Amino acid sequence: MTHVAIIGSGVAGLTAALDAAARPGVQVTLVTKSGLRESNTWYAQGGVAVVTSPEDSVASHVADTLAAGAGLSDDEAVRVLCGEGPDAAADLIRRGVLFDVEAGELARGLEAAHSAERILHAGGDATGAAIAGALITRLLASDVTVLEETTALDVVLQDGRACGVRLLDRSVLSADAVVLSTGGAGQLYPCTTNPTVATGDGLAMALRAGAVAADLEFYQFHPTSLAAPGNHLVSEAVRGEGAVLVDADGDRFMKHLHPDAELAPRDVVARGITHQMAAQGGVPVRLDATALGREFLAERFPTIDAAVRAQGFDWAAEPIPVAPAAHYFMGGVRTDLWGRTSVPDLYAVGEVACNGLHGANRLASNSLLEGAVFGRRVVDAALVPAEPEAFGADWAEPITMATVEYGISASRADLQQLLWDAAGLRRDGAGLDAAAHELASWAMPAVDDAKSAEDANLLLVGRAVVASALARRESRGGHFRIDAPDPGPSPARHSSLVLR
Ligand code: FAD
Ligand code: SIN
């Protein structure tokens, strides 16, 4: 019997668990630190980017993904995602996901930087809940052992190989293969679309286990979160349906910044908004969806409609205030195209991983697909262990980050503000350098409960983000340095980092 331990219950972990459990001779345990539903996946709105129409093509999805990635996406990873995407989406449907249909066909929406309408959605803007809900139903009917409300603390190693996971109660879950599918780290920043579970745990665990991480300087800020408590996401699909961004004078400022205006790549729109907000004294810009009509807004975007109303806005009648918020971590644990990390028997998949697919800027709605595609692949790798595929010259040698054991105590809020100021949408060398020194002087919290475990992980990941951002002296995609505003020489190289 082979025992696979899967950490996390988003689309990546659920897909891997169901695929692994379907193999003979495989025993699966899925560990998740909150309830099964609590994940970035559950809150996903816009949908799944995948080619399902004869008028669209895999080649065009590949081209759009590479263009959004700003010269850093790994060609082969993109080809795997887009090429295996239709089959993985068919698997989701087979497992009970009810995507929206129109006139008897799958409904397909448009999002920024896509050259075709290819975004499958469910429940209008409740795509993540529809996907996770269907997969969880399957999971609960399977032989997978599910441990909810169970925090994984660290990867346990024996002779340099992963052999299990240490849990918060200090017990060890032994396994032949450990799959990290712990999602992102939006809680690094004070404004984020991510739920509270997104604290970079898997990345921190992998770093402590000696794994190589990659592209940690690339954090994606979503352009349009509601500028109100909670930073509720207002999906790009709303702009895809025709909503526009306006400044304090009602002018469509994005028209002056990019030929695709509101549908320019995400990093461009987010920086455009930041620039405009600075020009108008920090006041949020507005998203004008009034032309879409009250009935359409309520029907096509029921989740957003409820969230907007709950904050006292009537978006059918007036533009709503929006601002960028931390949304998606392009960087993560470095893996090959099968989820193999640099530590034998340790795998990573989904948002926690970095196989180079998203480059410097993820194309909208490619990450649910990533979980569905690579969640299947990682199972093949975990059951037939092998060395990671060789990384080409476009992957830089890892920089080494020192651990610091003593220092002054700082709160999570302190960390979030420091990162927002120094490693947010606009960075510069002096600010990053000062942040690196400040972070080095902060004490690593003693881990005695779930919250302090998260705080320790956030501090480690925050240091790694700053170190990586300091090392990349150019601007590319989500990493914009005002002291080096242009891209460096091509071809760009992925950064790598290890902990000393
Ligand atoms: P997640 O779904 O984040 O799951 C991670 C899991 O790991 C969680 O269950 C968490 O509790 C668990 N976990 C974490 N740490 C531990 C630990 N220490 N121990 C045990 N368990 C742990 N992408 C799209 O493609 N289309 C969209 O429309 C879209 N909309 C989005 C809307 C919002 C509001 C957000 C936040 C993101 C959106 N994204 C979208 C991005 C996408 O949802 C995520 O990138 C993707 O769902 C990540 O899936 P995952 O399985 O890798 O991780
Ligand atoms: C959105 O609906 O705007 C989010 C899509 C994504 O993050 O891929």
Summarize the SSE layout with pairings.
Layout: E1 2-7, H1 11-21, E2 26-31, H2 40-43, E3 48-49, H3 58-68, H4 75-94, E4 101-102, E5 105-106, E6 108-109, E7 119-120, H5 127-140, E8 145-147, E9 152-158, E10 161-167, E11 172-174, E12 177-180, H6 201-208, E13 213-214, E14 219-226, H7 236-240, E15 244-246, H8 266-279, E16 285-288, H9 294-300, H10 302-310, E17 320-329, E18 332-334, E19 346-348, E20 353-354, H11 367-383, E21 399-401, H12 412-422, H13 429-440, H14 450-471, E22 496-499
Parallel strand pairs: 1-2, 1-12, 2-8, 12-19, 18-20, 21-22
Antiparallel strand pairs: 3-7, 4-5, 6-7, 9-10, 10-11, 13-18, 13-22, 14-17, 15-16, 16-17
Helix pairs in contact: 1-5, 1-11, 3-4, 4-11, 6-14, 9-10, 12-13, 12-14, 13-14
The protein binds flavin-adenine dinucleotide (FAD) and succinic acid.
